[in-house]
């Protein structure tokens, strides 16, 4: 299991709280997201990583919309090989896997703005609350206190309707539940920066998240 869900201990403890590629994209020109589709995309990335995001995220358009021009660059700030995508197929998990309670899949696409990592997590599960697997990610990026900030934030994401963006108090974590054509539960989580610090404005991050979510659907 890769680093994105490897720190699953905190996620499992909080599970009760919740019951990339540039190009032309937009609603209607790709298959609807589901656990099966995410699993196929994850398998496409393979066991290692990929230099391309398999999801229809048009980073150039999203960046232009918030006045960033060409400032969003593929890969992490310290990634000389420009690795963009990593993924996990947890649809048939082992009993000790973090996916065991809610089989699903995850694709993470990584970019950066200056020294800030910008990560788009697209995660799906058979049951509600699959974003709980990303609790360690949310805490790390947002620098949120577990009881006073993180727990209420995760609870708020549980109540959100498809397409409704939920932004952390610090501004650099945004979760958006996505619409699906079936009973699966899929969400996109955008993080920018680390430990609550980022060079982007909260409004820019929120608009980026909304734009990426619309592209995914």
What is the topology?
Layout: H1 3-6, H2 8-13, H3 35-45, H4 59-65, E1 72-74, E2 85-90, E3 104-113, E4 116-125, H5 135-142, H6 146-159, E5 166-167, E6 173-178, E7 185-192, H7 202-216
Antiparallel strand pairs: 1-3, 2-3, 3-4, 4-7, 5-6, 6-7
Overview of the molecule:
There is one protein chain. The chain has one domain. The longest helix is centred in the C-terminal third of the chain and has 15 residues, at 202-216. α4 runs antiparallel to α7 (202-216). It is α+β, with helices and mostly antiparallel strands and 217 residues long. Strands 1, 2, 3, 4, 5, 6 and 7 form a 7-stranded antiparallel beta sheet that branches. The chain has helices at 3-6, 8-13, 35-45, 59-65, 135-142, 146-159, 202-216, and strands at 72-74, 85-90, 104-113, 116-125, 166-167, 173-178, 185-192. The radius of gyration is 16 Å and the shape is globular. The protein is built from 7 helices and 7 strands, in the order ααααββββααβββα.
Task: Kindly summarize this structure in a few lines.
The protein has one domain.
**Largest sheet report:** 7 strands, antiparallel
N to C succession of SSEs: HHHHEEEEHHEEEH
User: Total number of β-strand segments?
Assistant: 7
Task: Tell me, briefly, the overall form.
Answer: globular
Quickly count the helices: 7
The gyration radius over C-alpha positions equals 16 Å
Secondary-structure-based class equals: alpha+beta
Which band does the percent of strand residues land in? 15-25%
